[in-house]
Amino acid sequence: MAENSQPSAISVHCVVEAGEWPPQEVLQHFAEQAVAATTALVDGAPAGPLTILFTDDAEMRAMNARFRGKDKPTNVLSFPAEARAFPPGAPRHLGDIALGYGIVASEAEAEEKPFEHHLTHLLVHGFLHILGYDHELPQQAEDMEALERQILQSLAIPDPYA
Q1: Is residue 3 part of a domain?
Q2: Does some domain include residue 146?
Q3: In terms of Cα–Cα distance, which of 27, 73, 34, 33 is closest to 53?
Q4: Which of 26, 75, 104, 107 has its CA at a distance of 20 to 30 angstroms from the CA of residue 60?
Q5: Backbone phi, psi, residue 14, to 5°
Q6: CA-to-CA distance for 158 and 150, rounded, in angstroms?
Q7: CA-CA distance, 54 to 17, in Å (whole number)?
């Protein structure tokens, strides 16, 4: 995809609910960095607020069961806001991303990746879902993974799929 000439104004609000996450200001930095790198490489990223919840595996399991019918914890969930839910001209909330500490930390350790790199990858992945990207079909997965690689490379993070 072509680079944006004007990055969109996205305000990132981080909420630390549970888990052994780094301090909120550190998470805020990684989240803002991931969002900025993504919007720099994705055409037409809308402006608006984005909320990121940092929680534990128990809450991720509950959300995964409630919203996806899968009774198990997961690393990241994305909840894009529906455009029609906002009156014309009103600021549009982009959506919410939730991450579970235990799964994120154990995946990073198992894959021998720095925690910060894996976290950034999941933030980018979750934000791409907010922007409408998906990986249900093979071509969608290839396109999304290629974009993730490109975004992470811009942040000097090695290919997460290598």
Answers
A1: no
A2: yes
A3: 27
A4: 26
A5: -100, 135
A6: 10
A7: 6
Query: CA 83 to CA 85: how far, in whole Å?
Result: 5
Q: What is the pLDDT tens value at each position of the chain, 162 positions in all? A: 333 333 458 999 999 999 899 999 999 999 999 999 999 999 888 888 999 999 999 999 999 999 999 999 999 999 998 766 666 666 678 999 999 999 999 999 999 999 999 999 999 999 999 999 999 888 898 999 999 999 999 999 999 998
Q: Quick one: CA dihedral 140, 145, 150, 155, positive or negative? A: positive
pTM over 0.85: yes
Residue 53 phi, psi (nearest 5): -100, 125
SS3 87: coil
CATH number for position 150: 3.40.390.30
Q: How many Å apart are CA 30 and CA 62, to the nearest integer? A: 25
